[in-house]
Each structure stands twice: as structure tokens, then as C-alpha cells.
Amino acid sequence: MRIDVITIFPEYLDPLRAALLGKAVDKGLLEFGVHDLRNWTHDVHRAVDDSPYGGGPGMVMKPEVWGPALDEVCAPRPGLAGPPTLVVPTPAGHRFDQRMAEELAESPWLVFACGRYEGIDERVVEDAADRMPVREVSIGDYVLVGGEVAVLTMVEAVGRLLPGVLGNPASAQEDSFSDGLLEGPSYTRPEVWQDRAVPEVLRSGNHAAIRRWRRDQSLIRTFRRRPDLLAALDADALDKHDRKL
Length: 245
Ligand SMILES: Oc1ccccc1-c1ccno1
What we know:
Blueprint: E1 2-7, H1 19-26, E2 31-36, E3 49-50, E4 60-61, H2 63-73, E5 85-95, H3 98-105, E6 109-113, H4 122-129, E7 134-138, H5 148-159, H6 169-173, E8 192-193, E9 196-197, H7 207-225, H8 227-232, H9 235-243
Parallel strand pairs: 1-2, 1-6, 5-6, 5-7
Antiparallel strand pairs: 3-4, 8-9
Helix pairs in contact: 2-4, 3-5
């Protein structure tokens, strides 16, 4: 998979080259390109934004800068079939979740456009949508200063799903949300800590009982913390759970 990020703060994306994702790059599983949007400015001040039509607070990012940037970064690349999927982080986007991470992980090429201020001129996304798939995505119901943190979040959630990135592929299968429920509690040595013992069933060696216990804990935790996820569960998802018992 290739991932390109366009931003006015390229250094914000340095963590992408560390740890798990850095190893994925070293193994050739991931290819990153980070591009400074100001490279496509035309004036001495290298301006990327301007006042909003209709007035109001904040600044809007200029189409005359974003347009050429996307044309160049999204231009056909040898070895990459078709245009990229353009992902635009925005508080007004569709909600990013594990299912969307799995969908994006199927794409051979993602380009992330990091907006700041009051966002990017709407015509940029409209124009891009004539030439490539575009997804406007929110990582949560709060407001950030810019899209870079959202990109770091999404790239980690997507990158860890790529074959070969996680040491143990089963981890991704057992994720919270992978079957629509939250993961239950986990324990490791020592057996007793601060007078708190590890649940007996986990030390029983009875794998069927352990699976059942973990499923029940998962359902209880989801019911208590995210009842909305239970409401969204369909019979297939529950069957998927039961088939693992
Ligand atoms: O708050 C933002 C500002 C710029 C770009 C993205 C965001 C955002 C907030 C939540 N998800 O994305």
C-alpha cells in the first residue's frame, strides 16, 4: 500500500516512520510520501488560506493551492493501478470506525489531505470527486486544529490491518470492534497483585469455558459502555461470536 499525506506541517507526520509503521516501511509493506502544501503556493508569503466568502471567523484553504497539489500528488504512478482514494479529515465527515479502517485497508493507494483553519474550499473536494473516490472522514465529535492528528490515527488503524504488519495476524481478528463488541478485560502475571486475583476460569485450562467467559465479559462491557454498539449488532455478528465458543 502507498500512502501520501499533504500538509502544511510535514514534521507532524514524523511518527509514521517510527515503531510498527516504520517497520512496515522497512519491510516494504507500506510506502509513505509526505508533501508540504506550501510547495504549491504562488506568492512570496506562501499563503495557503484566505478569508471566507460570506464572512465569519477563521480562514479557508485556497483552491488555487490545493488543486495543483492534488493534481501532482494524485497523478498516475507506475505500479499503482487507478487513481488513489482521497481521504479528507474533517469534523463534518462520516465517522471513522473499524469497518472503515478495514475498507480503507483494501485500497492500494490512499492520499490524505490535511485541512486546517476552517477547512478547505468545497470546490476542491467536488473537483477531486470527478476523478477519484473521495471520503470525508471524522475521527470523533470534537474539533482539532488540523487534520494531521486524524491522519496519524487513521493511518495507524489502517496500517496495522495490512498483512505482515502485525506480528500475530490473529490480533487483528480479536480486536475490539472486529466483531462489533468491545474487548473484555485482559490479565497477565502475577496471579495475585494488590490482593486481586486473576479470574479462576482463565487459569482453568478449560478453553471452551474461557471462550464463553470472554464472550460474556465482552457483552457485559459493551452493554455498560457502548449500548449503541449492541443496537447495531446483527444476528450474523452474534453468530460469528457464538461460532467461536
Ligand atoms: O477538527 C478537525 C479539523 C481539521 C481536520 C479534521 C478535524 C477533525 C475533527 C474530528 N475528526 O477530524
